[in-house]
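pasting for ref
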Amino acid sequence: MYLPPQFNPKDKAHALHVMRGHPLASLISVDDEGFPFVTHLPLHLAQADEPLVLLGHCAKANPHWRFLQARPRALVTFMGPQAYMSPKVYPDLVRVPTWSYLAVHARADVVFIDEPPSKDKLLKSLIGDHEPAYAAQWRGLETDYQQKMLNGIVAFELRITDLQCKLKLNQHRPESHAAMHAIYKAGNDNERALAAWMVTLGMVPEQAESPAAIKPFEGS
């Protein structure tokens, strides 16, 4: 993706935080005619050390897995919080509107997971991310039903070979930061998340945000 240096963070932890906090990704490769094919799916970041690995699955009825089988490379994208930014954040009027957003792009090699125990372990990883209490219910289901569900999906690892993170928060326009933060902090969920990121990136003083608002970024 287009990645100007002012929006390119040096800390890989920021990319990992976006991936974990916004796990519904776009898995992109090409079909048999060479046209881009996209599947939207939640992914589990299996490890934060090199090599980075994402775990996921799609329905067996989805032709995407056949395209990946034939050409086992893909692009995975994650979109974090995003919001409009008004030119009123500047002290002068010769400005234009823009959009703030966080995005991660990852190139990956695809490795399929075929054995039922390994597929079951992958599902438990996703369950653990979003509803750990459901694991007991899954284990309590009839074995035949579990097997039917496992047979209905195609599971895979996405082994990341290149990672890009774009944090577009007007970092190169410090004259806008205080007004931006005030507007975003008073806004909707996306805007408040961007306000917290501004603190994390040192764009505004930490005192501008409550400790609770910036706690999710600690140690990420």
